[in-house]
């Protein structure tokens, strides 16, 4: 066997030859290129060479397979036979070159030996060719040579990332009476870690009486990748890891500390390591700080972390929306840090600053790609294309960023054109570019166009086509694509399920639900909501109950399963207060109270329901409201946030309900049912509530039933539900309580559902920065038929924490399509960035405060400000003349200058006692029995008519704003 390789060097044979054993040892210590010359020198000096020398010489080439093959080719000329040990050494030298390893195994004559096959299996494992490793095991069995534990262990190692195959091999070992050893179990645990199967990894760990450090680390990795932080830290202590000796174990545990408060634990572990910490330790702690947006802590670590640490610190600033600090850190740094700083600007919509950063560095594909992403985040797709085509030789990364920029702006034609022009620029298309173009088609609902772009069998790119089908009417294609997927894909299953649900194909949806419910999780919320909405719409009680029962198996706080089982038994059409809720009251009361805050899904919400059931009698809605407010106080004291309207927010909500005047009321974002409860107890008409999350909808159903109120509670996305809620007359009042950046999309879907003169009340428009929505209803972009008051309000717990609610009278007309100003687009991007962060890893209260302060400044700069001088329940001085909508003098009577009843609230315009500045004041109905609106009409004190209400509100706003402070 001959093979060309490196040119042999001169040998290093000592003058006095050692004995046979010593010379073999010397050969093993040589550099690969010295082996051949040394063998010939030993033969020339008549030293007897044997199989030990051959194996030693080949073994010295363990990191250079070409040289090992060259040594093999020289052995026949030295009258040395290639025995099993020599063949195994040659195969081992192949490392990841598995094809060469198999060729040596086949040609060496030792193919059936466990040792040689084990060496070939190791090469397959190094290359992660699990299918070849399994085939080799089958071949060994066919050769009547039962694989030994080493062969099995190597095959299991090759199955990393294929955890089902790894477990299958462990079962095969047991069936073949081959006892797995520590290496076998550790290799299987590594595969389970790759597949995020931490529960089964822990079961394997328990099979080892005395795990070594590799086994502990494999189990720690499985817990870390499964996001089981608490269990990972507990296992670190249980493994008796010591800072000086087990740095790797500490690094793995720090990697599990990403998100929310995990950065504190990561820094404490880093402190335990002290001087033993390596670069990976610092990187893991930096990653935890970056994921939590703790830019100050990341910066402190980065000072000693070199360029990588500085880049992580800039990334932490980006996640915390601290783009100014990111720019300061990037000054004088390399292009990778500059790209990170550009990304920080892009996250908050500051694309102009991103452009300045790129100009300071000069041309760079890395910087251009980041800059195109920043323009895309700000929906400046034309500017992105200008920058892109100015590049002389754009690469695939620049193409993908430019296509994504067009996709975010819903410019699907431009995105598709860029994809199709890649071959003209001698750039090969890839899945990233294809995905971006398909995403643009998805946003436009063009599933046929998306299908035309798909090439070959569906992969990750096929998911976008499935999502297009879900948005459109292509449910048959969605099922066909799902069947063609080469491997099981939860995301593809979810998309196909949503396509069938939106097409009302309930039989197909029920069939898909069986597979989806095999592994229900909160992360699949939209698919589960689509199923729930379809089952409720079609009256499919059995599938609806089965859905809730399967969700009851989720890992969650104590009591969640009982709540879901109870909700499954509730009939939405039955009278309130069935016996099952009374039974739940007893079962939850027996459970320990538990913390109201924590990391388990739905822990806060189950604690709220438990508090209500313990504190109130069934059917007492007023007591339930009080119990929710008291729970909010406890939660706020513990550092949590009660996501239901209370305090002055509740007052605005109640006046909106009173303003419905017997019409239907809609609550978008029901959460646990708090706002729906307040509305149902006061509104004369039907109350309809929408909630996306299936579990939260179940909790709300139980709470509302226990309170004894009738609410039509629907589960699903507004895109799916609102078109079905269009009814004669429309909704007289609507309460919006989702994230501010989503309000504009909801408003567009909601507009056809509103009755003339409807009241639209939106919560948290300041703290979640509803920039585009406020421009459409309260800014210069508002339609003539929209009259809006922005009211400063406070939370039930934190009276000092300012927020705004918007109250809009929709008299008529469609939404305007005026372009949103750039500052508001930047604010919208910052809001959406914080929403994604709060949803995925959690956000700190300070981040909401920062966004609220930034939003207040930006909104004031474009003339969107709250009414100045609003004073709930207070009177105004009677020394200001008022005017009607037609500029005729209004005769004054008592405290009222303009007596207008809007939304069940009596409004007055005058000067407030607080600072004598013009303002609008609202009095609750009948607060002053001598001056109700209708009585002022009878007395002739005002000439205002109900038709003038919208115009008067507009005049009030203009007169009452004053100059911004």
UniProtKB/TrEMBL annotation:
<protein>
    <recommendedName>
        <fullName>PPPDE domain-containing protein</fullName>
    </recommendedName>
</protein>
<dbReference type="GO" id="GO:0008233">
    <property type="term" value="F:peptidase activity"/>
</dbReference>
<dbReference type="InterPro" id="IPR011990">
    <property type="entry name" value="TPR-like_helical_dom_sf"/>
</dbReference>
<dbReference type="InterPro" id="IPR042266">
    <property type="entry name" value="PPPDE_sf"/>
</dbReference>
<dbReference type="InterPro" id="IPR002885">
    <property type="entry name" value="PPR_rpt"/>
</dbReference>
<dbReference type="InterPro" id="IPR029063">
    <property type="entry name" value="SAM-dependent_MTases_sf"/>
</dbReference>
<dbReference type="Pfam" id="PF05903">
    <property type="entry name" value="Peptidase_C97"/>
</dbReference>
<keyword id="KW-0677">Repeat</keyword>
<feature type="repeat" description="PPR">
    <location>
        <begin position="395"/>
        <end position="429"/>
    </location>
</feature>
<feature type="domain" description="PPPDE">
    <location>
        <begin position="874"/>
        <end position="965"/>
    </location>
</feature>
<dbReference type="GO" id="GO:0006508">
    <property type="term" value="P:proteolysis"/>
</dbReference>
<comment type="similarity">
    <text>Belongs to the DeSI family.</text>
</comment>
<keyword id="KW-0378">Hydrolase</keyword>
<keyword id="KW-0645">Protease</keyword>
<dbReference type="InterPro" id="IPR008580">
    <property type="entry name" value="PPPDE_dom"/>
</dbReference>
<dbReference type="Pfam" id="PF01535">
    <property type="entry name" value="PPR"/>
</dbReference>
């Amino acid at each position: 066997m001959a093979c060309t390789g490196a040119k042999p060097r001169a040998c290093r044979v000592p003058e006095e030859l050692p004995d046979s054993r010593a010379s073999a040892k010397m050969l093993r210590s040589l550099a690969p290129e010295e082996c051949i010359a040394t063998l010939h020198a030993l033969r020339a000096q008549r030293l007897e060479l044997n199989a030990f020398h051959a194996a030693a010489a080949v073994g010295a080439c363990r990191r250079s397979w070409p040289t090992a093959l060259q040594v093999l080719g020289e052995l026949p000329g030295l009258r040395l036979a290639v025995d099993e040990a020599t063949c195994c050494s040659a195969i081992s030298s192949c490392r990841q070159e598995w094809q060469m390893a198999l060729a040596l195994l086949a040609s060496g004559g030792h193919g059936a030996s466990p040792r040689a096959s084990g060496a070939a299996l190791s090469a397959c494992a190094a290359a992660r060719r699990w299918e070849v490793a399994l085939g080799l095991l089958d071949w060994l069995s066919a050769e009547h040579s039962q694989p030994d534990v080493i062969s099995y262990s190597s095959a299991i190692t090759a199955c990393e990332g294929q955890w089902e195959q790894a477990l299958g091999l462990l079962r095969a070992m047991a069936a073949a009476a081959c006892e797995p050893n520590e290496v076998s179990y550790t290799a299987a645990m590594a595969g389970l870690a790759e597949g995020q199967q931490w529960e089964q990894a822990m079961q394997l760990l328990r099979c080892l009486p005395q795990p070594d450090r590799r086994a502990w680390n494999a189990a720690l990795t499985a817990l870390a990748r499964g996001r089981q932080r608490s269990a990972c830290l507990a296992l670190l202590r249980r493994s008796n890891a010591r800072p000086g000796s087990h740095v790797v174990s500490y690094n793995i545990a720090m990697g599990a500390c990403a998100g929310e408060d995990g950065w504190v634990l990561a820094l404490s572990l880093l402190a335990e390591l002290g001087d033993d910490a390596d670069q990976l330790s610092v990187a893991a702690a930096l990653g935890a700080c970056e994921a939590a947006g703790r830019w100050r802590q990341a910066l402190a670590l980065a000072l000693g972390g070199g360029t990588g640490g500085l880049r992580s610190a800039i990334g932490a600033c980006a996640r915390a929306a601290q783009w100014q600090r990111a720019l300061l850190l990037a000054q004088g740094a390399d292009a990778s840090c500059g790209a990170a700083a550009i990304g920080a600007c892009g996250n908050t919509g500051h694309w102009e600053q991103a452009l300045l950063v790129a100009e300071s560095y000069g041309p760079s594909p890395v910087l251009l790609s980041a800059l195109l992403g920043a323009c895309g985040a700000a929906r400046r797709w034309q500017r992105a294309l200008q920058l892109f085509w100015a590049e002389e030789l754009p690469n695939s990364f620049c193409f993908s960023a430019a296509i994504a920029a067009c996709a975010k702006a819903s410019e699907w034609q431009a995105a598709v054109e860029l994809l199709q022009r890649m071959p003209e620029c001698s750039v090969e298309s890839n899945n990233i570019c294809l995905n971006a173009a398909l995403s643009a088609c998805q946003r436009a609902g063009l599933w046929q166009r998306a299908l035309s772009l798909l090439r070959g069998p569906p992969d990750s790119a096929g998911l976008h086509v499935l999502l297009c089908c879900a948005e459109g009417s292509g449910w048959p294609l969605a099922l066909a694509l799902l069947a063609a997927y080469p491997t099981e894909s939860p995301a593809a299953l979810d998309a196909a399920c949503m396509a069938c649900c939106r097409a009302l194909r309930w039989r197909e949806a029920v069939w898909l639900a069986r597979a989806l419910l095999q592994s229900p999780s909160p992360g699949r919320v939209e698919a589960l909501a689509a199923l729930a909405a379809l089952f409720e719409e079609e009256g499919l009680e059995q599938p609806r109950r089965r859905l809730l029962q399967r969700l009851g198996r989720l890992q969650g706080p104590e009591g969640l399963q009982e709540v879901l089982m109870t909700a499954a038994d509730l009939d939405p059409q039955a009278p309130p207060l069935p016996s099952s809720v009374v039974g739940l009251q007893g079962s939850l009361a027996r459970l320990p109270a538990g913390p109201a805050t924590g990391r388990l899904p739905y822990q806060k919400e189950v604690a709220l329901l438990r508090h209500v059931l313990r504190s109130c009698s069934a059917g007492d809605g007023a007591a339930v409201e009080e119990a929710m407010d008291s729970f909010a106080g406890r939660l706020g004291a513990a550092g949590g946030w009660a996501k239901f309207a209370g305090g002055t927010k509740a007052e605005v909500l109640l006046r909106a309900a009173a303003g419905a005047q017997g019409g239907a009321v809609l609550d978008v974002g029901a959460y646990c049912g708090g706002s729906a409860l307040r509305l149902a107890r006061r509104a004369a008409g039907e109350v309809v509530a929408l909630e996306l999350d299936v579990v939260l909808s179940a909790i709300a159903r139980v709470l509302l039933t226990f309170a004894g109120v009738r609410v039509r509670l629907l589960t699903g996305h507004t895109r799916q539900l609102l078109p079905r809620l269009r009814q004669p007359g429309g909704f007289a009042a609507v309460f919006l309580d989702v994230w501010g950046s989503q309000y504009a999309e909801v408003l567009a879907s909601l507009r056809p559902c509103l009755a003339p003169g409807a009241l639209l009340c939106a919560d948290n428009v300041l703290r979640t920065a509803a920039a585009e929505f406020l421009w459409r209803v309260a800014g210069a972009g508002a339609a003539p038929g929209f009259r809006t008051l922005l009211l400063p309000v406070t939370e039930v717990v934190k009276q000092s924490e300012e927020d705004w609610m918007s109250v809009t009278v929709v008299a008529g007309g469609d939404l305007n399509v005026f372009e949103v100003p750039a500052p508001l687009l930047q604010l919208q991007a910052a809001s959406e960035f914080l929403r994604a962060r709060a949803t995925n890893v959690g956000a700190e209260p300070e981040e909401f405060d920062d966004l609220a302060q930034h939003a207040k400044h930006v909104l004031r700069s474009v003339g969107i400000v709250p009414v100045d001088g609003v004073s709930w329940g207070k009177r105004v001085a009677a020394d200001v003349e008022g005017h009607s909508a037609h500029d005729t003098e209004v005769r004054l009577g008592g405290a009222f200058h303009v007596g207008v009843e809007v939304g069940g609230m009596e409004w007055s315009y005058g000067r407030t006692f607080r600072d004598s500045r013009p303002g609008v004041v609202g009095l609750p109905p009948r607060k002053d029995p001598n001056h109700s609106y209708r009585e002022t009409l009878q007395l002739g004190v005002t000439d205002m008519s109900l038709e003038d209400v919208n115009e008067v509100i507009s005049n009030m706003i203009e007169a009452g704003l004053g100059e911004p402070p």
